[in-house]
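Supplementary Text 2. Reproducibility record for the structural model of the 126-residue chain.

All settings were left at their defaults, and a single model was retained for analysis rather than an ensemble. We include the record here because the model underlies the residue-level annotations in Supplementary Table 4.
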Amino acid sequence: MNKTRVHSEHAPKAIGTYSQAIRSGSLVFLSGQIPLDPATMEIVAGDFEARARQVFRNLQAVAKASGGNIDDIVKVTVYLTDLGNFATVNKVMTEFFREPYPARAALGVASLPKAADIEAEAILAL
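Retained model, structure tokens:
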């Protein structure tokens, strides 16, 4: 199997035993991103919408580092500690994606790293 690490300085660095993304053939598997500012590695200030926007900015940066762009994402999984924020996620996603939108799953979870309230991972097809 051909497996290549993808890294972007414009997204938070991996803080564990994982890569920002792995490319295998024409698929790129983007690790979950929480709303960390890549420069400070802290959760961005502001409301939930600002945090959701940072998550998708981080995914966008890793997608670009893979040789693609956010429009190449075919599947997104969003994890929320409050499913009441689902409508805001939809709003923010329209800023980053065009139709046809990627397939998506949204899951309510008890907690996320660094007490984040949103995380998203994706699969990109080049």
